[in-house]
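In the previous chapter we treated chains in isolation. Here, by contrast, the input contains two separate entities that must be folded as one system, with a combined length of 727 residues.
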Amino acid sequence: MDFGDSPDEAAFRTRLRDWLRDNNPGLPASSTDDAYWAGMADWHRSLYEAGFFGMTWPTEIGGQGLPSVYDVIVDDELAAAGAPPRPSLGYLVQGILEHGNADIQARFLPGIVNGRDRWCQGFSEPDAGSDLAALRTRADRDGDEYVLTGHKVWTSYSDDADWCMVLARTDHEVKKHKGISAFAVPMDQPGIEQRPLKMINGITKEFGEVIFDGARVSAENMIGEPGEGWPLAMTVVSHEREPGELGFVSRYRKIVKDLTATVNADPASFGPEARRDLGWAMVEAEMLRLHVCRRLSDRLDGIEHGPDGSVDKLLMTETEQTVGHAAVSVGGSGHGGTDDTWLKVYLYSRAQSVMGGTSQIQRNLVAQRILGLPS
Amino acid sequence: MDVRLSDEQQALRDSVAKVTADLGPGSVGGLDDVERAAKLDAAIAAAGWRELRMDDDGAPLASGVEAAIVAEELARGLADAAFVGPVLAGDLRRLAGAPEANDVETVAFAAELDDIACLAADASPDGVVAIDAAAAGTALAFTPAPGGHALVELDLTAEREAVDLTRPSAVFSGTASRRALHGTFVADADHVGWQALGLALTCADLVGAMRGAVELTVDYAAERRQYGTEIGSFQAVQHLLADAHVAAEGSASATLHAAWAVDALEPHEARHAGHVAKAYCVRAARSVCETAIQVHGGIGNTWECLAHVYLRRALLSSDVLGGAGASLEHVLARVLDDVSEDREIGADHGLR
């Protein structure tokens, strides 16, 4: 039982800390500016080239092949340096690692890890949100290809993406969970229309909807077997629920750090309410960091997929939304033409209890699969 | 980093769980079974758990992690026997260079419970509270000494009161016979380190209370039928219990770190870890125990239901060494330039 670094871990931490001193791109704390996402692509490549990205992934795909807890060190040091968080791609990588064949892995994983290819995730549809298995996008076989028809929505980064991991129905005769397959679909083709969606904080960069109307994908781009789309989706969303996989702890701690500096710059302007909200944000961000230490330690002997990801998702959501409250409490809500950066951070935090599975769904999973309550 | 419990630590957890399963009260009625309570006390004494922080060649016998494991399991099983008080007393004697106590001993806290009582030579102990006083004959308090404190031993003749039905306190009124422990000295840094242990152990107690309350309530929800079905099948009930489980898990993560920090980090860092955990656990424990009462419905509002026993236990553990507001202030004081961390403990800066 040791929260401290082993000698190897300590050496790695020092190396990363030294590197960050010269290589922090200084992106804003808020992940809500369109400029931020352009900067993130460069940041991804920079981290990768220095050997600080994909710490726990296999070396064959460009990862570092290190134990699970190295991600804690990366997040610690990014937060301490006030650097941007690491790109959140673990769910795609794990999904393909666990379900894709050797050919799929070799063709797609290195480009995801090294930042060459941008990906989005075509899961949700207008009538298939929480009830994902109700999705209606279809993939119809035509020779060596499939033809895609359907409508995906709330798709993050669809405007920048080179590839989309699409869930589509390939078998209409079986039960809804069984007839879904997954594909790696190239986005740059005539049968795909991408439209940005404006989020509640006003940004247009993150969210999009994607219309497939006769888009084509090679049968060789199917990830997993026909009908394996649902288990793949479950692998992907379970990782999408985990702060340790997403690297969000460093994002929360960076926001807390910036808010603390805001108070210290003009202490007389901040009364008990703003301070209390900041205090809770600190406590929550630290709790989440420690929870991730626990979870990633549990993975030192290998990943097991269980319902605990739902616990992590709910703790992460509580943290992000507490940090969001501190953001408006300390940073102000931008009335009267003042800076609305922190308002944007706050409004963005509301998505955390929806994306990757709503908090309501997570609570169902905790109650039934962990506590064993009757369904 | 590897924060998994070792096999020995897991075995310790299992053995404490077995003792409380066999000898814990099990029901509100069971709290009145003095014969059983005496057996539980004897089992804890025989296992030596109250001695975990006593001196063993210049270091404590066991780390804060082991002590926290025992505290958590005893709370989960609602053990009505002294533990946290005697362990904190043992740690104080170790830090102060005092000989081991002859009998079960606990700690006397200031009336607000936010720190150990500090009594000048001629001061009355009026209002001082000895926690966890069930089997204790004496309680340790501070008396001022240059650069720190010396220990004084108070005879526990005061009557016991029990908001926490499992752990009576003794409130001093008027005079009490006392003995200065000559040659003892607790430096300020050691005082901080001791507070770190106290914060970690009270957090562990809160985590145990949360886990016990969730288990009690999940079992009830799976059995209790209304509208022709188990109430645990209703989402409204499931979501309350899911939130309770999640709160206990977050608390456990913060507490594990606080317990590790007691011996692994320097005292101020360790105490900071304790305050982070305490702020989180106090808020979580109240909510979880309230959920336990809510899901038990009318039965939950009767004396016979164990849910309020968990809540009462949590209220005491929350107040010992300061509640959520005090801990939040300490967390802020570390990073805000205009608030000092070294101010008087328990001072109110408007956050409570």
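Chain A touches chain B through 51 residues (CB under 8 Å). The mean pLDDT of chain A is 93. Compare these points with the single-chain example from earlier in the chapter.
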